[in-house]
Records
---
Amino acid sequence: MKKTAILTVIAFCFFAYNAYAASDAFKDNIYNPGQLKPVDSVLKVKVGQKAPDFILKAVSGETVSLKDYRGKKNVVISFVPAAWTPVCSDQWPGYNIISDIFENNDAVLLGITVDSIPTLFSWTNQMGKLWFEVLSDFWPHGKVAAKFGVLRSDGVAERALFIIDKKGIIRYIDVHNINQRPPLEDLVRELERLK
Amino acid sequence: MGRKISGLITVILALFIATAISAAENSPPKVGSPLPNIELPMLNNPADLQYLGLPAGGKSFKVNQIKAKVVIIQIYSMYCPYCQAEAPNVNRLYAAIENSPALKDKIKIIGIGAGNTQFEVGTYKKKYTVALPLVPDDDFKIHKIMGEVRTPYFIAVKLSDSGRTEVIYSRLGALENIDLFLAQLVKLSGLK
């Protein structure tokens, strides 16, 4: 009977819906990796700790250092797994229309993936003009993601959000189920708590 | 042994039903067919309720409860760049209908935010000053029934007095020319 229950659960999981709404902006260019293990890494940082510093190149041509925001801005880091994948392609375009929410909370957004700059350039071009920096953690591969403990065993990053305050202290971590988009209200609520 | 066999039958049956359901639900609404049976979360804004002619209260409503001859359904997402770009055009469509004495009470529009929470729907509404009612579909339940269409996707449904629904328009992509679209809808629905 136990076996039956297990088999039924497996059968159900097999058909579980991998939900995402692809924007027509990406046409048929989105690769669907299917349902993935929700989280596949172990965090190396904790809320209350100082965030590890990093310097990464951005698609804009800038070089961005986390330290540069110290004493000036709160920083939201949005790691997403990979360019041209379903949920990721539907996450940053949403952040792109809420620059006012970030501004009102004295925060900047840094988007990071482990893709190369040319890939990120092509992919983010489909999203329209982004107001935030998109950083490439391509080489050494996933070094920054690994520092935070959000590099998965297959070399892509988790879908993770970090809020770092003006003192450089991590105030919020959401290593989200990679298959789902984090609800916007959770991020906004945590940003407003910084005040 | 009997238990084993009945267990196996249960699993096969579960697989069969799941396959049948996903096959049935995976195509977008077809022109000429009834609208799939969707339950929309009840709106709580009095202006939205008045616009759609719905009574207050209750947890959900169906499209054929809307007081209109034709209902345009936009499936969108606040996370979709094309939907964002299309938002002003949909606002113009809404205004064109509301400013037309001939169409005002006959055509209504609603938006369904695929995978969007109530907060995300509200964020989009505020950002683009959207006047038409928007409902969340945070668990993609409606999106799945509607064939997991890409966004934006527009469906127009003709409602009969008996509550029957008939899809008269079902297409992916921006509306482009709203005057032509409206003229097409009037023709397809037989509205005068």
---
Amino acid sequence: MALTGLDIFKLLPKTNCGECGTPTCLAFAMKLAQGQAELTLCPYVSDEAKAQLASAAAPPMRAVTVGVGDSAFTVGEETVLFRHDKTFVNPAAFGASIDSGASDGEIDAAIAACKAADFERVQQRLRCGFLAVRSTGDAARFAEVASKVAAADVPVVLVTEDPAHAEAALGAIASSKPLLHAATESNADAMIELAKKHSVPLAIRAKGLEALSALTEKAADAGLTDLVIDSAPTTAGEALRDHVFARRAALNQKFAPLGYPVITFPAEISGGDQMLETVYATADLLKYGSIIVLSSAEAWQMLPLLVARQNIYTDPQRPMQAEAKIYEIGTPGPDAPFVVTTNFSLTYFIVSSEIETAKVPMYLGIVESEGLSVLTAWAAGKFVPERIAKFVNDSGIAEKVSHRDVIIPGAVAQISGELKEELDGWNVVVGPYEAADLGAFVKKRAS
Amino acid sequence: MAYNNPTESPSGAIREVTLGSSANPVVVGGETSLPFYLFEGAMPHKPKVAMEVFDAAPEGWPEALTDAIGDVLGDPVAWAKANVEKHGADMICVVLASTDPNGADASAESAAATVRAIVDAVDVPVVVYGSGNAEKDTEVLKKVAETVTDERLAIGPATEDNYKPITAAALGYGHVVIAETPIDVNMAKQLNILMTQLGLDADRILIDPSVGAVGYGLEYAYTVMERLRLAALNQNDGMTQMPMIVTIGREAWRAKEARATEEEEPAWGDAAKRGVMWEASTAISLVMSGADVLVMRHPEAVRLVKTAIDGLASQ
């Protein structure tokens, strides 16, 4: 739990020397409690007080970064169990895996598949985050494959329980900050030593949370902070239970030995069924997995997972926004209908998919309206005639269509008169109330 | 520091709702914990899959879907039997799409005859959804309710516009009502209150929270359902303790990502698997936020979700 100003005050020298820049120790304590001052400003604070304050201020779950540069990803630092309490912080990373014993061609293909799983949706980049290289050959081959992946600028998870293999691979790519998986009860000392020597994050794997906590404490005692945990579940139910317990222990009980991001391998519980693996990966995403290792990065499995992740990690208070511009849906010609609506991402997705389903090409104008849905945006003054008119005039749509009809959502029929006054030369058509009826509406108008 | 399992003990429970015939009843609900939190509560009845059957051959479905369903598409009775016998459906959800006044505008009598024939053909419970037109649904569901009196159906959607006549029909003939509200905790509660005030027992209501698929509002549905479930369990709020029914098939197969062919979207991969995944990942997300009855469409998505439900229950 965070300390109160008074708790902190008790730990300060209480000399009111003012050297920290605040006249009294009490006032300084209050500032510390609110995060407006740093403890280092006090020259006289005891080491004991420093340690106590540091542990109280430490986030309940560590952030861990894997990789370097633009392709690196950070996970962890989560603060809640339910997304309605507060936005989830660092989106889970999804990646694929490859055996080092595979042929060079297969390895190149795995790298290419990971790179190809790179999508854009509502102005966010959604991509395969890493490749896990599993040591299935000798140590030299493991190092060689790891180097190949790192050279392709893809973050690496090194999967081996053999310290000699880990040593070989880390010797080659430690500077790329791979995640080493895993320290277990049988190899912990050697793996902890290696992670320390090469300053790379380390995954700890043990069956059950008690054994896992004992190992993370050992690693923490050795000075490691960048840890990831793996409770080695054998069913989806065990995975759920372990993840819920670990998150609750870390956040509600401040149990530091489990205050680390979770890595999962849904293939281990899917019996070789890649579709079932994807379903379990979704379950891991929802209940507290942070690094989710799939068997491959095929687009049909990455796309639903990455889009679900985008949904789950959005701010529940602030809607996602689509880019305000003209979208050409189908291949609209100069006669194609022109429709406008707001930039609430859900509105955009629903209207655009209804147009696609109707198979009537259209121009869809998305007007900047702070991510609000049609009625809310209208009520808040964000989807009003001036804004819509400005959008239409600035959008260049007049050069694309030969007609001058703009279709507005039926929900804001009341603005049609005023919009017509604002939009010189345009005819304002009140469309249907529901997006689902748009296809039928334009077909009827055309006939 | 010693580790102890941080269990919690919710005080509330979800109601049990019984559907189907007295010979073969199916109970949904009854949970005393969040979904699959079996370490601190019970889930006496696993979530059930109600596979969809349309009363007339649906149009505009992607090939990946129609191929999997096969030639029963235009024959509701055969479709229902295939769902139960071949695909392991726990229930059938009849969608009376043809009654839509903006479409074929089929009569209430013909809709009721279709439901009757399906009830006679399968020995699992039957859920009946109207076309979503509040006025027409009132007429259609009333006819359905009075035609099938030997089994307990779930009929809906009852909305704030038509809950009174639909509740009255359910009351008269012993059915369960599906109470549909637009993704909102308080509106869901309010409709349950209004329906129980008409004399309907609280264990004869299913909540339809109006869900969205992955990429199409999943986050809203997920969170509203999670909040409804938390209110039911932790605050013991009686008007949130009804089991939830979610229309996954309809939402998932509307998504562009589920429908696009490989020619249209080459970067999105295998269209058949992608469509199934869209439905299955939507389904598992909603199961994990509290769904008790999953209305689903593709047999392969159903197989995956049923397997995953068993996997999650294995602790």
---
Amino acid sequence: MNALVFGVALQTGDMLIYLILFILMFIIVMKYAYGPVSKMMQKREDKINGDLDYADETRKKADELAAQREAELKNTRTEATQIVQNAKKSGDNQRDQIITQAQSEAQQLKANAQKDAQQARQDALNSARDDVAQLSVEIASKLIQKELSADDQKALIDSYIEGLGDTNGSR
Amino acid sequence: MEDKIPTFTIAGLNFNLGNDISGVIAALMVLGFVFFLAKNPKIRPSKRQNILEWLIDFVNNIVKGSIPGEEGRKFYGLAFVMFLFIFMSNQLGLFLQVNVGDYNFVKSPTASPVITMTLAMIILLLSHYYGVKKWGFGTYLKNYSRPVAFLTPVNVLEEFTNFLTLSLRLFGNIYAGEILLKLIATFMKSHGVITFIPGIFLEMVWQAFSVFIGSIQAYVFVTLSMVYISKKLEQE
């Protein structure tokens, strides 16, 4: 109590008062100001961390989706070209087939027509030959009033017509 | 020039009314300042809350400088309150000096060695407390003989010099500042207008400088406090 600090009596009471004052101030500041604010700071830090994590996760997911979509797009494109190619190929095939078919059909038709024409010509020739033989026999029989043997006559006319054909061919 | 001190004695305890009133005012300033800023804290901070959070971060960084990691977390609040209280105490005497008669009732509390010693004592007692709590009493005592045994007297002596330098540095800076403020004030009043006008400028310049000194000293006090506490928490 009588101790001196720098010529002044040591104020022990002040020390006590400041100790109490400091402790009181500490408790009040901690409880009503520092505590809530630092808690809020902590909460914000947690929230920001959470948000950043979430953003990272979302971006990762988006990247994955984009890659997937890209791959799918590529796939689709190749598929589409494949389809187009296939269609083209089958179209070509079909065309070739149709053409060959048409050609063979035309050939057939032509052959048939030729054969028909040949037949008709042959028929016409044959009937003409018969007619002529008949006619000549009738003419001869009228002329000579004599029944000639039709067979003899026919042989005669045949030789004649052959001679005609030869002269026609050489002409 | 020398102000008388309004003292009284209760139950053998000496009280200096000037110190006590100033201390209460400084404490109220701290509380008012902090409550003004910490009103209704939110996740999205208001401007006020930003200031307080910046201050908290600032003090936290002082602590982290000496006691990194989780261990320093329990000293954040102590450092924060100590910083604000010393800061407010340093500034109080710059704009408020109440004298009644010859007696001085309001000044910077930190301009009194008793007060700075009390504050230093709080810090150093806490440092010893945490030292014993962490290492146990035996290891705590053994830590005085580290790194080598013959340095033990130096280490013990250091405890006292730490206490004295921590308290008297703060006291000396603020006390000198106040003395000069009063000197300039008496100079202002000495010869009427001729000295009043330059005196006002001098006073303003010195007040501004004292604000700077007061802030620096609060910073230094808290920094050194944390250094002393960290010394007790680690083994060399």
